[in-house]
Amino acid sequence: MRREASRRVRELGSIDKARTLTRHAFAALRRGDLSPPGRGKKGRDTPYIAEMRPQDILMSVAAGLCCKPGGFHIDPIRPVERAVITHGHSDHARPGHGAVLATQETLDMMRLRYGDNFAGSTQAIGYGEELKLGDVRIKFHPAGHVLGSAQIAVSCKDTCIVASGDYKDAPDPTCAPFEVVPCDVFITEATFGLPVFRHGDAADEIKKLLASVALFPERAHLVGAYSLGKAQRVIALLRAAGYDAPIYLHGAMEKITRYYERRGVALGELRLVKGMKKADLAGTITLAPPSATSDIWTRRFPDPVTAFASGWMRVRARARQRGVELPLVISDHADWDGLTATIDATGAGEVWVTHGQEDALVHWCTAKGLAARPLDLVGYGEEDEGETVPLAEDAEA
Ligand SMILES: [Zn+2]
Ligand SMILES: [Zn+2]
Fold it and tell me: Are residues 103 and 153 in the same domain?
């Protein structure tokens, strides 16, 4: 009887430890790849606490990518308590979170788009800065996608996972260049994850645009480009090609473009289209959100040549469908060669593939002997499909 009681006391004393053990062990057991708890008492049962599996550090849930040991989500699509955000595009940076951790630029862009109360609280973090959150450490690295865009390295004990968000390895004068971050698990996007996607040199596409402007001095050139990132990159590329005439902007792009200038990105002389006489727009270049290039807004231009700057312009059917006369293959996402070269360079043994054409990239990884799987994340990629412009701004611009 007494022996029974003392056994119970011993059990109670270790209950907390047992609970943690069981929780991890259950998850592992469900995956069917660990031996039952309690086995191998001679020091062999510690590893599954000491060595966390990548899936225990980051997992995809309905709200997005969840880091349980760190108590946060990355780019959540639903309001959460703590969000860590890779970049300012609306499919990644959504309003309504309790707290947001991001680069200063991403926070500013969210403020510009959603207003001052876009989150309960905010904290800025710089590239290369490390922060401890719960049981993990996180560090931001440039993603080369748009101004302020970051890859987020999440480390727990000896395991490092890099969530790269959207990225490109091609040069872009408007943001910090992509940095290869060595890791165990690399989470890659796959927007252009098919071997047919090879973007080529953006400067050559700009030459095409300038050749068209020279060829049709009596027509206006209207270039569809996403307001955040692509528009500013096209302007910077035009300047780099020696084009120094004023460049015109649709009103919906003004705020974000001025913000780029405030952050030190030189864009030359910019003017708003609003208030311009039709005849005066002959021979000029105007940047507008993609949706505006196909509506009545275009009537204010003399016989406009419609161009569109996007990686999707590699697909002729897409250009035709949109009524694009001058497709410009300029993308802020890595192409097939960029994706595969980056995966190689990270040295990751495991790759998780998300938002886009996952299958081909998963297959490529598997053939190279890497563990790879698609991540079932939904709700991303809309930014590149068709940007919505607030009606009022559209009418005004
Ligand atoms: Zn993006
Ligand atoms: Zn994206």
Answer: yes
